Amino acid sequence: MPIIEEKTACYHCSDDCEDEIVHFDGHTFCCNGCSTVYQLLQDVGLDDTYANGPLGIKPDTQKIEELTYLDDEEVKESLLDFSEGTLGRISFELPAIHCSACVYLLERLDRLNKGVKQCEVNFPKKTADILFDQTQVSLKELVVLLHSIGYAPNLNLAKSSEGKHKADVDRTIIYKIGVAGFCFGNIMLLSFPEYLIGDSELESKWSTLFNYLNLALVMPVLLYAGSDYLVSAYKGLKVRHVNMDVPVSIGMLAIFGRSAYDILAGVGPGFLDSLAGFVFFLLIGKWYQAKTYSGLSFERDYKSFFPIAVNRIGADGQVNAIMIKHLLNGDEIQIHNDELIPCDCELLSDNASIDYSFVTGEAAPSSKALGNKVYAGGKNRGAVVHLRVLKPVSSSYLTSLWNNSGSNKTEEKPPLLNFSNKIAAWFSATVLSIAFITAVYWLLVDPTNWLSTTTAVLIIACPCALALSIPFTYGSILRHFGRHGFFVRSVEAIAKLGQVNHVVFDKTGTITIRKGDSVNFSGNTITAYQLLVLVNVARQSLHPLSKNFAQVHQKVGSERVIGFTENPGSGIYGMVNGVSVELKNPNKLSESEKEQFESWQPKVHGMGKTAILIDGRLHARVDFSNSYRPGLKQVVHSIQHEHGLSLLSGDNDTEAIALNNELIAGFDANNMQFNMDPHEKKAWIMDKQSDGNSKVLMVGDGLNDAGALREAHFGISIAEDNTQFTPASDGILTAESFEKLPQLIKLAKQARLIVMAAFALSLIYNIIGVTVAVQGLLSPVIAAILMPLSSVSIVLFTTVSSSILVRLHLKNI
To answer: Which ranges in the chain are annotated with CATH 3.40.1110.10?
Structure first.
C-alpha cells in the first residue's frame, strides 16, 4: 500500500514532489502516474531502463481524455501511413525523447502492449515508427499508452512537408544569430570608450550607464540566443548525463555571473562583450555546420538517391518509364510481378495480390479487388496490374522503409562506430575535470585570470569533430558512390561493406547479360498463338530470361493473363484464353522430362535455357544467347586477390567448363555451386558465416536471391534498369557500373583510414587547444571561433580526402 509523505525527488522522472510522495518497491515517486509506469516496466522485465538513472519524463494524464477524436475513421485515415487488414503503421513525433534510455524503452513497446508489433526509433529526429495490430490496440489506445509512459506524441492532421519543417528550423537559428549579432555589436559599441581610454578615465555616471545597458543587452543573448545550449545541458544533467553542451553552458553562466557581479558591485564592466561574442560565433558555427551537413544530403530520399522509375500509361495508351518524382495524382501506372508500388494508389485491374512484407515484415499476400486502395511499399505478386496514383510519392517514407528493412539483420555495429560512441561517453567528463583543475590553479596563482582561462578550456574542447568523423566520411563516400552508379542503404552500411572478406556471385542476370536478340526454339513447333500466350505470360515477370524473351518478341500483341504465378528458382505460369503455359527451370522437370528436354539439341548453344510446357506437358525448349558481362574477368581477378570467391547458380554444372575457359583461374570446382534453389543459396551463406570469421558480400539480381542478399553481411543487387529496386539488399549497383565493383569495395575499406585520420586530427586539435587554454593564452571569444572551425575543418578534410580517394580508384574507369 503506497505511503504518503512530504516532498522529495522522484525515482522515475527525477522531479521534486510538490504535494506528495508515493513509496513503492523501496523507491519514491512524485505521483501515482510515475509509480504506475515503474510497476509496468518491472512487470514486463524492463527494469534495466533505469540503469543510467531516472528517465526524466513525467506521464501526461491531463490530455488523455481529449483523445476520443482518434476513434474517427477519417482522422485515422489521415494519420496512418499504412492500414491493411489488422495491421497499421504510423510515425509519431515524440519530443520527450532525450536519451538512450528513452530509445531502449520505446523499442520495447511490444512488451507493454502485445498489440504493438514493432517500434523503430529515430533518435536525432525524435520520431518513432510503430507497426501495430489494430484488433489488439486501437490508435487511441496506442496514443494513450505513449502518454501514460511520458512520451506524448505531437499529432498533426495536416502533416507539413519535409522542406517546410526544415525551413522553420533554419529560420529559428537565423533569428538567434540575428539577436546575438545585434546585441554583440551594440555591447561592443557601448564598450568602445573603455577600449580607447579605459574605464577609469570615464565619468562614473557614464560608465555605470553603459555597463547596465550592456547587462540588459546580454540578457536576450543568454536567455534566447543561447537557450539551446542551456536547455540541452539541463536535460542532460537531469538524467545524470554530461553531454557536450554542459561545458559550454557552464562557461556561459560563469562569464555572466562574474560580469553581473562586477557591474552590480561597481567593481568593473565584466566580460559581457566576450559572452555575446562567443555565443554569436557559436551560433554561426552551428548554422554553417548544419548547412554543410544538409548540403551533403546524408538524409537522402529517392529523388537524390536510387532513381526509381515506374511505367506510366499515357493518354494514348503508350507505356513509358518515368522517375517516380514526376508522378502526379491521377496518373495511371503499370506494375509487374515482384515490382515495388511507389505510392498510395487505387487498383484499376480486376484483382491483385499485394505483398506488404517490405512494410510490415509479414509475407502473407493481401488480395485486392477493383477500386481497392493499395499502399506505398507493397509488391505486386502476380500478373501485371494497373493502378491510379492517389498520393504523390513520399520519398522519405520509402527511404525509412529501406533503412528499417536493414534493421532485421542482427549483427553488431562495426567496431569503428562503437569506438566513436565510447569516446563521446567520457569526453565531457574529462573536459570538466580539466576545467576544474585549471580554475583551482589560476585562483591560487592569479585570481583575476581564472574565469576567462577556465571558460576558454570549457569552450575550446569539442567532441563534435570526433562525432562527425564517421558520418561525414562515409556520407561523402556515399555521395561519390551514387555518382558512380552504386546506391547504398545507409552510412552504417558502408562500414559493413568495408568488413567483407568473401564475395559470392549469382549467375543469371548478375554475371551474364543478353547477347543480341537471339532466342532459339527446339523441340515441337511453336504456333503463332502459342507464341502469343508465351510472350504475354513472360511480360508479367521481371526475371532476366523472361524480360529477354518478351523484349525479343515485343511486337506480339497483348492479351489478358490470368492465374499468373512465379516461383523463384522454378519458373512462371499463366493462362490466356484457356491455354496454360509454363516457362520452367529444366532442373525442376521430372527425370523423363529431362531426358526429352536434353534430346532437343539447339542450333546455337547459349548460357540460358528454359523448358516450355503447354497445358501441363513438355512441349519445347528455348535457349538464350547470353554472354558474360564486359570486364567480368578483370572484376573476378581483382576481387580474388584480397577476398574469397564463390559462385552460386541455379543452373546445372554443364557451364562450369565455360566459366573456367572464360575466367581462367577465376572460378574453379571448389568455389562453384550449381543446381541451387533460393533457399539453398541462403543456407550456404548462413553456413559460410557461421564460423564468425567470414563476412560475405552477396552480388545477385535481387529476384531469385533476395533471401541470400538479406542473409549476407552485405548484399548488392544488380539493376539493369531503374524499375528494378530490391529492398532486401544493402546496395544497388547499376549494370553499367559492374566493372567498378572491386574499386568500390576497396574504397569502402580505405574510408576507414580517413575516419582514423579524422579522429587523429580531432584529438590533436583538442590537445593543442586545451594546452594553450589552460596557460591563459586563449580568450573565450577566440575559443568560440575555433570550436566550430574544428568541426568545419573535419568536414572539409573528410570531403576532400574522400574525393581524392575516389579519383585515385575510379579515375580511369
So the answer is: 513-627
Which amino acid makes up residue 649?
S
CA 690, 711, 352: angle at the middle one, nearest 5?
A: 155
pLDDT at 529: 93
* Nearest-10 Cα torsion for 800, 801, 806, 812: 90
With a cut of 60, say whether residue 192 has pLDDT above it.
yes
Contacts by 287-290, CB closer than 8 A, 24 or more apart? 287/170, 287/173, 287/174, 287/177, 288/788, 288/792, 289/464, 289/788, 289/791, 289/792, 289/795, 290/170, 290/173
Output the pLDDT for position 195. Answer: 59
**Crossing angle between the packed helical segments 464-483 and 415-445, to the nearest 10 degrees:** 150
Give which of 240, 235, 189, 196 is closest to 214, Cα–Cα. 189
DSSP per-residue codes, 388-401: EE-S---HHHHHHH
Give me the residue label for grid cell 502476380: 382
pLDDT score of 465:
60
CA nearest 544: which of 629, 431, 458, 616?
629
Q: Helix, strand, or coil here: 464?
A: helix
- pLDDT tens across 786-799, in order? 766 776 677 788 87
Given the candidates 2.70.150.10, 3.40.50.300, 2.40.160.20, 3.90.1150.10, the CATH classification of the domain at 309-408 is: 2.70.150.10
Residue with cell 547458380: 649
Q: Please, are residues 789 and 460 in contact by the beta-carbon 8 Å criterion?
A: no
Residue 321 — very low, low, confident or very high, per pLDDT cuts 50/70/90? Answer: confident
Would you say 498 and 805 are in contact if contact means Cβ atoms under 8 Å apart?
no
- What residue spans of 204-271 are helical by DSSP H? 204-220, 227-238, 245-265
Q: Which three cell numbers stand for residue 324?
A: 517516380
Q: What confidence category does residue 417 fall into, taking pLDDT thresholds of 50, 70 and 90?
A: low
- β-pairing, 644-648 vs 672-673, is parallel
Cα–Cα dist 562/382, whole Å: 9
E strand residue ranges, 375-428: 379-380, 385-389
Asked if the model's pLDDT at residue 674 lies above 60, the reply is yes
DSSP string covering 506-542, please? E-TTTTEEEEEEEEEEEESPPPHHHHHHHHHHHTT--
CATH of segment(s) 513-627: 3.40.1110.10
The pLDDT score that the predictor gives to residue 603 is: 63
Q: What is the pLDDT of residue 375?
A: 86
Q: Which fold has domain 484-509+628-747?
A: Rossmann fold (3.40.50)
Which pLDDT band holds residue 72 (cuts at 50, 70, 90)? confident
How far the first Cα of the chain sits from its last, in Å, is 75
C-alpha cell read off for 53: 538513472
Every domain range in the chain assigned CATH 2.70.150.10: 309-408
Query: What three-state secondary structure class fits 716?
Result: strand
231-245, 309-323, 543-557, 672-686: least confidently modelled range: 231-245
Does CATH place domain 64-148 in 3.30.70.100? yes
pLDDT at 533: 93
Is 686 a residue whose pLDDT tops 70?
yes
- Beta strand residue intervals within 494-643, DSSP E: 502-506, 512-523, 562-567, 571-576, 579-584, 608-614, 617-628
Average pLDDT (93-111) is: 74
| Structure-model confidence comparison of residues 221 and 13, the more confident one | 221
Note the pLDDT of residue 154: 81
